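I am writing to request your help with a piece of structural work I have in hand. The matter concerns a single protein, recorded as an amino acid sequence and a row of backbone structure tokens. Could you please explain, in whatever detail you think fit, how the structure tokens follow from the sequence? Thank you for your consideration; the sequence and its tokens are set out here:
>
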Amino acid sequence: MAALGWLTPRRRSATARSVLAGEAAAEAARKSSLQLEQEREEAAAETAAAEPEFPVVGDVRAAAFFDLDNTVMQGAAIFHFGRGLYKRKFFQRRELARFAWQQAWFRLAGVEDPEHMQDARDSALSIVKGHRVSELMSIGEEIYDEYMADRIWPGTRSLAQAHLDAGQKVWLVTAAPVETATIIARRLGLTGALGTVAESIDGVYTGKLVGEPLHGPAKAEAVRALAAAEGLDLGRCAAYSDSHNDIPMLSLVGHPYAINPDAKLRKHAKDRDWRLRDYRTGRKAAKVGIPAAAGLGALAGGTAAAVALHRRRH
């Protein structure tokens, strides 16, 4: 058994064993700390390579372009505007029913229907014909407070603010009337707005458009023209939209974002590895939202019921 004595640990005093344990623990802690620090540095380097800082602070040749309807604001601005004009007796109840039905469809479907949007624009043009631009601008300020201010998506607003904080210009790009878009941009503290231009002579609306509605490819042309005038590098700019109709605009910039995207845009964005943000929650109906105001919701529901009843009878 004496030959096996070397296998038996030498007996040490309690104090000596404590010192040994403490020194071993300290050495292990130092090594693990160095290893963890190295892992954190490697992870930070990988994150920086995969996700560079954006927006870049002080990059004056970069700007951000935001679609309005269902991107910055829930629902369509032109429908909210129409509701405000009805309240001020600019048109009759049957016209309100049209606006309500179109708005309800847009909110529930979550996508833009060209026929609905065109019909809404035609209605709005006929309604404002003969009125002064200054009058509609003043009314538009009131309508924003009444129907639009509470419908701004906080998440999208934060994205816009990030660009502003980085010293970049931020523009709305929308098919809504440029006067309405300008009011919204000013209220949100943005740089300005690109929107559909209605013809006016001596400050009075004629009921006609200048060119066509700022929709689809027209938005891309507006962004391209503004970028050239402002000396922007589109490859360093960002654009945000919910609709596949805005793919031409999104494709222009180096940083495209799909915000609350419709099905077609979501697929397109995923295929091209674009960034997505969805600020809607809950079930599909809750995600795209129902008309927020009870009066509009009831009227839209009544319109839908009337249409269904008419179809059954005929």
Q: What stands out?
A: The two ends are 109 Å apart (CA to CA). The longest strand covers residues 169-177.
